[in-house]
Amino acid sequence: MKSPLIVALDYADPSAALDLAALLDPSQCRVKVGKELFTAAGPRIVEQLQDKGFAVFLDLKFHDIPQTVAKACQAAARLGVWMLNVHASGGKAMLEAAREAVDAASGHRPLLIAVTVLTSLDAPALLQIGVADPVPVQVQKLADLSASAGLDGLVCSAREATQLKAAHPDLCLVTPGIRPPEHAADDQKRTMTPAAALAAGADYLVIGRPITAAADPAQALAAMLAACAVL
Length: 231
Ligand SMILES: O=c1ccn([C@@H]2O[C@H](COP(=O)(O)O)[C@@H](O)[C@H]2O)c(=O)[nH]1
Fold this sequence. Notes:
- This protein is an alpha/beta fold.
- It is 44% helix and 16% strand.
- Helix 4 runs parallel beside helix 5 (92-104).
- The ligand O=c1ccn([C@@H]2O[C@H](COP(=O)(O)O)[C@@H](O)[C@H]2O)c(=O)[nH]1 is lined by residues 8, 10, 34, 115, 118-119, 155, 176-177, 186, 188, 206-209.
């Protein structure tokens, strides 16, 4: 599939997620199941979306001791998802344990990516949690750590895409915080438009509210694809 779009199905009600998915074409986007939907609906929603032909990014951002994360990654890999993720700030041993667990999973091998710095965080917010480095520096440190543990890609803001592509050209860059020019930032701090994100080096754009909260989600997706000029 050429499309770089991943639609975030952030719903507490599985039927709402399936209703939105019914408006989407699996050949034009992938879908993301995050903490809200997975906690409400469990693995069944992943199966239902896959049965409809969607590649699923399971965005549970595991962050725990290595053994626990490894077992969680193994369970996620068994669901047959296209991609899953962990927090890079869990440390190198945790990242390596996740890598080994996914590699050891039988059959399908999902992409394993690591979250660097959440797109909802800016420099003052980082300082509140004890990180004095500028955002791009902290993102780079966590990206380097993830690369050294053999991960397949990174979650970052598109604002860091150019620097990360230059440093790690083989890693895929998955960028939330995507906003069309006319759309509010909401709780996102490091945003970029779809076209600018791709131009900066992002491989995949994660888009939630600009599509799910649109009056016409299918039309909003079509507008995003047109903005990306991928069809
Ligand atoms: O750094 C991150 C990591 C994950 N997300 C997730 O992406 C979507 C974004 O939704 P919008 O409605 O487009 O803001 C959401 O599911 C987050 O959990 C992120 O935003 N930033």
